[in-house]
Amino acid sequence: MRFSVLASGSTGNAIYVATDRVSVLIDVGITGKQAEAALREIGVNPGELDAILVTHEHVDHIKGIGVMARRYNLPIYANQKTWAELDKQIGTIREDQKRFFEVGEKKELEDLGIESFGISHDAAEPMGFCFYHGRKKLSVATDLGYVSDRIKQTIRDADAYIFEANHDVEMLRMSQYPWSIKQRILSDVGHLSNEAAGEALGDFLGGRAERVYLAHLSKENNMIDLARLTVKSVLEERGLKVGDDVHLRETYPDRPTRLEVL
Questions:
Q1: Distance from the CA of 7 to the CA of which of 35, 108, 216, 255 falls in 20 to 30 A?
Q2: If pLDDT is split at 50, 70 and 90, which confidence band does 68 have?
Q3: pLDDT tens digits for 132-173?
Q4: Are 14 and 33 in contact (CB under 8 A)?
Q5: Three-state secondary-structure class, residue 142
Q6: What sections of the protein cross the membrane (predicted)?
């Protein structure tokens, strides 16, 4: 199984996951042109894509979905409540391209197993995904107001995680955001702080040299060095040695991570 975080952050999110038989995008929250450029940067021909999976309907996750689906004749998988919102935002999609993938459902696309799970976020019915190929597992969980025990149980035992570390709490509190926005981000249907990310990861990481990609960083209220330092500190308080037991990786709002193989 191969994967790359094509873009991640408050300005747009997209992830590529593939095996030798199938390749999918998780969200396209960047323009179609940006998605194509990111794919080509990691050596992937956009014309070889097979499907798009949707976590939820916020614009930083769906901006380019309609363009990519129409241009490359791709089916779009989302749950019914999310589809009700997508139809208003992504333009005309043929009925045969609309596929349903409900919360808690498991599907197989060729040799790629996919499991969806519900997350706490202020969207219609937001989801995360776990991907399985052979003995390998990749867990994708962002836009988390908080991480429930059920989510921890679902995503644990992965070889790699794409996991939210959205904001530094003090930076957010001191920011120019209206108080209503700050309250939303800090709420149980908002986003996960750096410290909360570290605490959640510490609850389920096994110390098997897992790769953790710190994702969905706020452009205004976080910095990658701060996110890494905070998560590292919390994990090491839990007895996990960063660099040996777990490897922290960066994601970027404007360029893809290198294509990783599990």
A1: 108
A2: very high
A3: 999 999 999 999 999 999 999 999 999 999 999 999 999 999
A4: no
A5: coil
A6: none
